[in-house]
Amino acid sequence: MSKAVVVTREFAPGAISRKFLRAYCSPVTNEQGVVIGSVTTFEDISAHKQIDRMKSDFVAMVAHELKSPLASVEQMIYALQVGCQYEATNNCNALHKRMTTRTKDLLRLIDNLLNLSKLESGTVVFNLEPVRGDDIIREVIDITKPQADGKGITIGYHPCGEEWLFNIDYDHMRTAIMNIVSNSVKYTPDGGQVLLSTELVGGFVNIIVQDTGLGISKDDLPHIFDRFFRVKGKATRHITGSGLGLALVKEVVEAHQGYIDVQSTPQVGTTFILSFPLVQKNGASVPELQLTAG
C-alpha cells in the first residue's frame, strides 16, 4: 500500500472561522492503496496562539533592549582597532577580530529574533512583485558558494528549463532560500554535495534543495521548525547556530502562500522542498491548464 501523508495547515481568524484553526487532512485509500477520498479534521489552537503571541512580544522587547548596547560595543571595538598602535605587532588584532565576530553573531541572533517576532505577529509588510525564480536561486548560490568552497562542497543547480515567476518579497525570500542552502552546507561533511533543482507542477513551482549531509532522525524531524531547536548529537556538537533559521523560513514560506516539506535519512542526507504558486509577468496566477498544455 502507498504511504499515507497527513497534510497540516493553519488558518488565521477570518479565513474560515473566528478562531485560529489547524487543519489535518489525511488521504483515504482502498485495499489496493489507491486514494479514493480524504478526511479533514480541525483543531482549535487559539489558546496556543495567544500564548505564542505573548512569548513573541516578550522576546521582541528583550531583543530590542539588547540590540542598542551591542551595536555600541561593536563600534567601540572598531575604534580600538583603528586607534591602537600595537594592533599589528601584538595579539590585539586577533583579540579584536574574535570580539567583533562574537558581537556580530549576537547582533545576528537579535535580528533573527526581531524578524521572527514580526513575522509571527503579522506586522511585517511584504513588498510583493513578480520575480524570475532562476535569478534569485542563482544569487543564493553565488552568496553561499564561499561557505561551500571552504568545506570542499560542490553546489549544483538543475533548473527545470522553463522560465517561471512567483510573487514574492525579494529580500525575505532570498533570505529564506539562503537559510536552507546554508544549512545544507553547514550539516554536510567536507567533500559532500548540495544540489538545487526546480520543477513545475500544477500551477506551482517546487524548489528542491538536496544534500548528502548528516540527515535528521525521525524523532527530530517534526521539531526542526521550532524556535531554538537544534539537532543534538556528537556529529553536530561542533556546529554553531541559534536554531532560528528554519523557524524564519517556515514563516516566510507560509506568508507567501507556500508549503514546505522535508524528507531525511540519517547518514544519507536531507531534501527540502519549497512550493509556491506561479504567476505571470503581470502578477496574475498561472492557470493549471496552461502548464499542462505546455
Question: Can you put this structure into words, describing what you see?
Answer:
It is built from 6 helices and 10 strands, in the order E-E-E-H-H-E-H-E-E-H-E-E-H-E-E-H. The mean pLDDT is 81. The strands form 2 sheets. Strands 4, 5, 6, 7, 8, 9 and 10 form a 7-stranded mixed beta sheet that branches. The chain has a 3-stranded antiparallel beta sheet with strand order 1-2-3, with no helix packed on it. The protein has 3 domains: 7-44; 47-121; 129-293, Heat Shock Protein 90, CATH 3.30.565. The longest helix has 38 residues, at 46-83. 21% of the residues are buried. It is globular, with a radius of gyration of 22 Å. It is an alpha+beta fold.
Topology at a glance:
Layout: E1 7-11, E2 21-29, E3 35-44, H1 46-83, H2 92-121, E4 129-132, H3 133-149, E5 154-158, E6 165-168, H4 170-186, E7 193-201, E8 204-211, H5 245-255, E9 259-265, E10 269-279, H6 288-293
Parallel strand pairs: 5-7
Antiparallel strand pairs: 1-2, 2-3, 4-6, 6-10, 7-8, 8-10, 9-10
Helix pairs in contact: 1-2, 2-5, 3-4, 4-5
Give keywords:
globular, 6 helices, 3 domains, three-stranded antiparallel beta sheet, alpha+beta, Heat Shock Protein 90, 294 residues, seven-stranded mixed beta sheet
Describe this structure in a few short sentences.
This protein has 294 residues and is α+β, with helices and mostly antiparallel strands. It contains six helices and ten strands.
